[in-house]
Amino acid sequence: MQIYWTKINKIIDETPEVKTYILDCPEGFTWEEGSHTHFAMEGFNAGDKPNRSLVRHMSISTLPHELTIGITTRIKDQCSEFKSILRNLDIGSDVALFKTHSNVPLKRENKTVYLLSAGVGLATFRPLVLDYFDRAANVKHIHSLNIDSSTDYLFTDIFKTTPDKNFTAQYVDNRKEYYQEVQKLAADKDGLFYVVGSDEFLLQNIEFLRAQGIKPEQIKLDKHPKMLAEFLPVD
Length: 235
Fold this sequence. Notes:
InterPro entries: FNR_nucleotide-bd (IPR039261), Riboflavin_synthase-like_b-brl (IPR017938)
Strand order of the largest sheet: 4-3-6-1-2-5
Structural class: alpha/beta
Oligomer: single chain
CATH superfamily of the largest domain: Nucleotide-binding domain of ferredoxin-NADP reductase (FNR) module
Low-confidence stretches: none
Strand content: 25-35%
Protein name: Ferredoxin--NADP+ reductase
Order of helices and strands: EEEEEHEEHEEHEHEH
Largest sheet: 6 strands, antiparallel
Distance between the termini: 36 Å
């Protein structure tokens, strides 16, 4: 396993609770849209066994051509040890990246793509939307639906409805309205439905989409193939 050590180059306050950590791109580090990585603090591998409390699975919110690695995450007042340490890191602090992989690259199958997310889940979808804006080939339309009760929406420069680019950005602030909108979207029985959020959020969305007649192969999750069967059993 190769570990890439790098430094925090910039810290962006996206909203009162969400920060993006911009990291220098280490030599040889590569990724694609929809990628996640293991993000670790100094000392995580100092002992005989890795200190898992200093490691988190994070989505990369940038694309390679941006020449930096973006890690966007929510940090609440009451948070985990990892988030507490992260909140106190400064520009120039060392962090590590390893086991980088994409489970949700943008599928170009001449279908409409629906991006369903909760809150900071938009960070996973930002690179997919940018990739689509760069090259729209074989994608009919992208519709993003995000539920966020804070109304402090992320990446509003990108996630805004742009008709000439066949892109729709939609926000709701409660579950009832969210599932009403998902039901409308699921009328497209040929669409691809990407879902990002907590495990509970994934399971609820899968159950709802399946009830609308959406097939398992149409639902895309940011989960390792070995874990997919737990969420999407084959009919």
